[in-house]
Amino acid sequence: MTSTAEAPRPPGRPRSVRAAEAIIEATLDLLAEGSTIEAISVEAIAARAGVGKATIYRRWPGKDALLHDALRTLKGSPPQPAGRSVREDLITLVGAIGHNVDPRAAKIMPCLVPEVKRNPEHYALYQSIVEPRRAVLREVLRRGIRDGELRADLDIEVTMAMLTGPMLIQRVMNWNPDLDVTTLPARVVDQVLTGIRAG
Amino acid sequence: MTSTAEAPRPPGRPRSVRAAEAIIEATLDLLAEGSTIEAISVEAIAARAGVGKATIYRRWPGKDALLHDALRTLKGSPPQPAGRSVREDLITLVGAIGHNVDPRAAKIMPCLVPEVKRNPEHYALYQSIVEPRRAVLREVLRRGIRDGELRADLDIEVTMAMLTGPMLIQRVMNWNPDLDVTTLPARVVDQVLTGIRAG
């Protein structure tokens, strides 16, 4: 150990990074406690993070940009499929739908839904989180068509909704108590691949 | 016309029916204005309907039973398919998913979602609305298997989720702005029937 007359610098990342993290965490905590994205204010976030409003405005132009970064942090990066087979990649991607590592997401995400339809800016915020995930799924389907694993005439956007919808309605509202979310990804992918029409 | 010395009876349905309707309407109005099913009280409903609490308890054992009837009234009866072809029946049923005649439903239903996962009684309430609709869909699929239109080995519960999920996520949160809900039912049904795997 070394002794010094100056106050020790806190270890690790620079102070501006720690302030940004505290601001993101404060935003997510307030949302998880029931603040709506409509009602949450930069003032409240600053107070909760223990920083001044100027610290927030130095990094984000406004509330929506901060919410965007906070929700992206909450959701994490879209999963990266292994790229060996379309079936395997689809099961990986479907399994990640609505799966949240951060427990605050289960409180925040369903409550966003009524708001995104009311407000175009909030809808844009929601889409900025969802579209990168859709893009990964779309690319796996396109690759499957190129490689001849999937029909050339398949309806890509509808197939994405068929893969996503069942997991979202199960994870968000447990739509059908007889469906187990752990086995659902493989069951959905296999049924989507095969179709239901007789022979 | 007959004249009488007594006060005229109001025309139409008996008073008890009109009171019940006013109670249902008051419940739906309060929910549409933002009351949660957690917070809404029999007192508030009685006050809004202009009746005493005893009038409510004469007809319903408690709040949950009243909410059940109010939500069933809101959603209406499940649609009845024509029964000519599986494809046509599925398009009818998928088109009805998340479609609400009563504009209050668009305000009430999405806000129920965060609550149904928190509270087993509210989940039971939600399921009592959803299961009759699932039952109609399930019966069309079973009929399709019996008649040889659909594969005998199809995964019925998963197929129901594949048919329902896309419409619900589009109607409730406009999940993908590139999907038009008016053409989605036929596109979903055709893709579910055919499957996506290459010939």
Q: Helical percent range of chain A?
A: 55-70%
Q: Assign the structural class of chain A, choosing from mainly alpha, mainly beta, alpha/beta, alpha+beta, or little secondary structure.
A: mainly alpha
Radius of gyration of chain A: 21 Å
CATH architecture of the largest domain in chain A: Orthogonal Bundle
Count of alpha/pi helices of chain A: 9
Q: Per DSSP, what share of the residues of chain A sits in E-state strands of 2 or more residues?
A: under 5%
Flag low-confidence runs of chain A: none
Q: What oligomeric arrangement do these chains adopt?
A: homodimer
Q: How many angstroms does the end-to-end distance of chain A come to?
A: 76 Å
Structural key phrases:
TetR_C (chains A, B); Homeodomain-like_sf (chains A, B); 199 residues; HTH-type_TetR-like_transc_reg (chains A, B); Tetracycline Repressor, domain 2; homodimer; transcription regulation (chains A, B); 0% strand; Arc Repressor Mutant, subunit A
Characterise this structure:
The structure is a homodimer of 199-residue chains. The first copy, chain A, is mainly α and 199 residues long. The first copy, chain A, contains 9 helices and no strands. Chain A has 2 domains: 15-61, Orthogonal Bundle (Arc Repressor Mutant, subunit A); 76-194, Tetracycline Repressor, domain 2, CATH 1.10.357. Chains A and B meet through helix 6, helix 7, helix 8 and helix 9 of A and helix 6, helix 7, helix 8 and helix 9 of B.
